[in-house]
Design a protein that fits this description.
By secondary structure, this protein is mainly beta. The chain is built from four helices and 13 strands.
Length: 243
């Protein structure tokens, strides 16, 4: 059986190189995280949201899926399926290819966006934006799934995310958390989801912004997202961490 690198005879350089290569091949798998959230409104469970992301030192890939359940699925089935790949930069992940498939009952959107270019390039879209999007508005945007991961992943530092814009191939929106409340073991970040570009006049008149909050609990060395609340079209929706 091949020896561990530290056990290889010091005068056998080829054998030591083989042991070092073996150690790389047998190294632990890249970081992988899975999250399960129940979605509730008016105290009733209406859906499940699953998020899975794999990270190496240089890259990441993720997928998020939401499905309505029970009576909510019978009355107004909603499904969301998002995936993304990207590069882990020095400051934050930079998306490469994003794919989104969204069915809300009122709206169906399917898009593929290349974020490796500036501005991002739409490779495929089921429908054009309802209003023009200025190219400058796409600067520094990320995809919705990368934004979710930056918000819901375990954090070592104070977790409230900075203001960011996201682009899903059809619309541009922003999320900002300017305020926080704290206890000994929790931090709740209070913010706003704001519609910016690509929306119709009717959509903007119906709702241009919505309050949201994310609560994190101390879990060892990390802050762990456990609850997300947002004011949705039919009332307040709350995501509650299950895993």
């Amino acid at each position: 059986m091949p020896c561990a690198p530290a056990q290889c005879p010091p005068r056998h350089a080829p054998l030591r190189r083989f042991c070092a290569l073996l150690a790389l091949l047998l190294a632990p798998l890249p970081g992988h995280a899975e999250q399960l959230w129940f979605v509730e409104t008016l105290g009733l469970k209406v859906g499940e949201f699953r998020l899975a992301v794999t990270e190496t030192e240089t890259r990441y890939a993720g997928r998020a899926v939401f499905r309505t359940t029970g009576l909510a699925d019978l009355l107004a089935g909603v499904r969301v399926d998002l995936s993304t790949t990207g590069i882990r930069g020095n400051t934050h992940p930079r998306p490469h290819i994003y794919q989104g498939d969204i069915h809300t009952g009122r709206r169906q959107a399917r898009a593929e966006v290349d974020f490796s270019t500036t501005p991002p390039r739409v490779l495929q879209s089921l429908a054009p934006p309802a209003s023009p999007i200025p190219p400058a508005a796409l600067a520094e945007t990320i995809d919705p799934l990368t934004l979710l991961w930056l918000t819901l992943r375990d954090q070592k530092t104070v977790p409230c995310p900075p203001q960011r814009r996201h682009f899903d191939g059809t619309r541009v929106a922003s999320v900002d958390f300017p305020r926080q409340t704290r206890t000994d073991r929790t931090i709740t970040c209070h913010g706003t989801y704001r519609r910016l570009f690509g929306y119709s006049a009717e959509e903007l008149s119906e709702r241009q912004s919505a309050p949201l909050s994310v609560t994190y609990q101390r879990n060892g060395l990390f802050w762990r997202a456990t609850r997300l609340t947002v004011k949705a079209r039919h009332g307040r929706a709350t995501l509650i961490r299950q895993d």
